Amino acid sequence: MTRSWDEFAAAVFDVVPPGLLLLLLLVAAGLIGALWYWFPAWVPRRLPRLRMPRWRRPRWRRRLKKTKANPVSAPTEPPAFAPTVVLPDGMLLADRFAAEGRFAEAIRQRLRDVVGDLAAAGVVTPLPGTTAAEVAATAARHRPAVAAPLGGATDIFSDVWYGDRPAERTHDDRMRDLTNEVRTRMRGGTP
Which three-class secondary structure state does DSSP give residue 86? Predict the structure, then answer.
């Protein structure tokens, strides 16, 4: 058996160089592996299918299966934002946070309130995932008068929430002044 195999190998290597034969075998193995893996997907639906066992995809391929979005359930309007949050006792939520010494939460709530007011006025339509800087840039494009105070409020918010700067009463007081200035400029109707 070994002599016949040796003669066969010698005859093949006389025609095809060993490096090229190795490359052809690797390409063939890769092609067979790809066909084995994706076999049902590349068979056209029009042709009659052979009775073959259903091959299961690996788990990671099954998880990546895309689902079709239902166009009926897709939201057509931007989400509604409630402007300034007022508690049942008439106190603003941001003022309650500040009274409790939670200045970082107060700063965040004041920015949420002013963004809600801008959304209610139709100046911006913030979507989930929109950053404070993007909202400020959009508002400045539509109403240039609010660019400076809203930019300052966004800077304070970013310093406290993303810059890990400890919030103090002075930050909250400055944020209150800036958000009130934004509202004043919005009511004044300055473009």
Answer: strand
Q: How confident is the model at residue 108 (pLDDT cuts 50, 70, 90)?
A: very high
Helix axes 147-161, 169-188, angle to 10 degrees: 150
Residue 108 tokens, joined: 């965040």
Q: pLDDT tens digits, residue range 115-134?
A: 888 888 888 887 888 888 89
DSSP, collapsed to helix, strand or coil, labels residue 52 as: coil
Domain limits, the chain: 2-63, 93-188
pLDDT digits (tens, 9 = 90+) for 16-36: 898 998 999 999 999 988 877
pTM of the model: 0.55
Whole-number Å distance between alpha carbons of 166 and 95 = 18
Cα angle: 182, vertex 116, 187; to 5 degrees: 35
C-alpha neighbours within 13 Å on the C-beta side of residue 100: 12
